[in-house]
Amino acid sequence: MGASALVTLFLDDWETPAKIRIVTLLFAVGAALAFPIGLFAARLVSQGRRWEVAFAAAFVCLAAATIGLTGGLFALQYRSYYAEWHAPAFTHTWALQFVFTTLIALYQFVVLGIRLYFPLGFVALFAAGVWFARQQR
């Protein structure tokens, strides 16, 4: 997933090399953390079923885990940037700021970040689904 983000950002002639490295690292770490969670979830869903079900389970579980964890990491980074201007911790105002900053970060990730998974990330997801389905036989 990091390679997919890297290629897409280079092709778009995006920002500076330092920012490209940070985004690539975010996507790579998010995918690395999501892979075992996605596999575990896919095994739970597809246990004892046909290979088509195993492929679909792997495809959906890996995609959801990767997008969810990478989006969560993005939201944490986004929140840490804006924390400087937020109210003192654990107050009512801080809680509202925390929730809405996180929701806005997740929205921005879905709108702007999902495109970085295409086309290479989609191909890798398809290959991982086929690999998982073959392992389940």
Automatic annotation (TrEMBL):
UniProt keyword terms in alphabetical order: Membrane, Transmembrane, Transmembrane helix
Top-rank taxon, per record: Bacteria
Transmembrane residue ranges: 20-41, 53-77, 89-109, 116-133
Protein name: Uncharacterized protein
The organism of origin for this protein: Rhizobium loti (Mesorhizobium loti)
Taxonomic classification: Bacteria, Pseudomonadati, Pseudomonadota, Alphaproteobacteria, Hyphomicrobiales
